[in-house]
Amino acid sequence: MLDIRTIRRDFPILEQSIYGKPLIYFDNAATTQKPRCVVEKIEQGYYSVNANVHRGVHFLSQAATEAHENARKTVQQFLNAPSSNEIIFTRGTTEAINLVASSFIEGCMMPGDEILISAMEHHSNIVPWQIQAARKGITIKVIPLTETGELDMDVYRALFSERTRLVSVVHISNVLGTVNPVKEVIEIAHQHDVPVLIDGAQAVPHLNVDVQDLDADFYTFSGHKIYGPTGIGVLYGKASWLDKMPPYQGGGEMISTVSFEKTTFNELPYKFEAGTPDYIGSTALAEALKYVSALGLEKIAAYEDELLTYATHQLNAIEGMRIFGHAAHKSSVISFLVGHIHHYDMGMLLDRLGIAVRTGHHCAQPLMHLLGIEGTVRASFSFYNTKEEIDTFIKGIEKVCQMF
Ligand code: PMP
Asked: Which of 9, 33, 51, 147 would disulfide-bridge 60, Cβ 3.0–4.6 Å?
């Protein structure tokens, strides 16, 4: 069992009051709060080891390089990737997907080829493909969803053609909370020799991810959603694919030799890391991964499931409640609307009670369109949330309902 009281002490921000009410932070799918150890790591990085990495012979540069490369190894272990050369630091999930969209389409696709994505994707797993696809004449096909908000696996199987070159789907939906059967998704694609990218932005904070067990070809996540800093994220890619892909950006670090006649590129992972990397961010991210691992992802998942069940049960008792997403396997994200109350009004009034929820389309406009709505209220839980907070949240919603 997790000791939530003790855990909460690691997150000073949670001690705040908002409008005189204790803060209840239920916007964890947007970003998570940071434990002391992560913030201290950033402070220590700047105060004690700050120097540019990879290029320096002096002590501090070597210390910073070692910390940065150790962070890469921590990420490798966290994802159980075969090699740390397959871990590329990016600014986040969005940049990781843009990298693959740009370099994979450039290096591994021809005009007329096809990509499969799903109807529950975040804009960051739609728009990068659209931009690159338009440049090269690539077709994007969309896997539809079932009534419960799960991938329609029969249609998925039928969408493959001779021209399918890549599948890119989300592990956990940031709107519906659906945990997709990504292992099966990958297995089916591999039967057609098609690689798969998994957008793991919402998955890594909530469940154990083993890229070798999944046999994922690419896996992406963002540091800030897993209790780490903003501005750092990860692309895991199989070396066999990354080697076939041209660099994403040019600059320092990513080269081997440069002349005006010909430039040769560095080996993995540096080929995809142009410019000074965020070595302070990488070490702080590693600290966050260690923090989460020490708590134990199985324990985190079990506790968050408990919060999800508890909240869903109580929300369902509210008159006029509509929850979006009824997957058999769901993560701790609940999107809902009550009666005719606009999601924005609900969010603003809950905020006055100190409760932070997200409102809007959640960067998934095609999904909103499919659901026939403009937006939802979304509550998303972390291991530092409590049932008492959910009780207050439910009372808050009831209060808002009475006002309308
Ligand atoms: N994919 C999913 C499923 C997400 O929830 C998010 C963040 N809301 C992203 C991608 C994009 O992540 P980031 O903004 O950190 O790049």
From this structure: 51
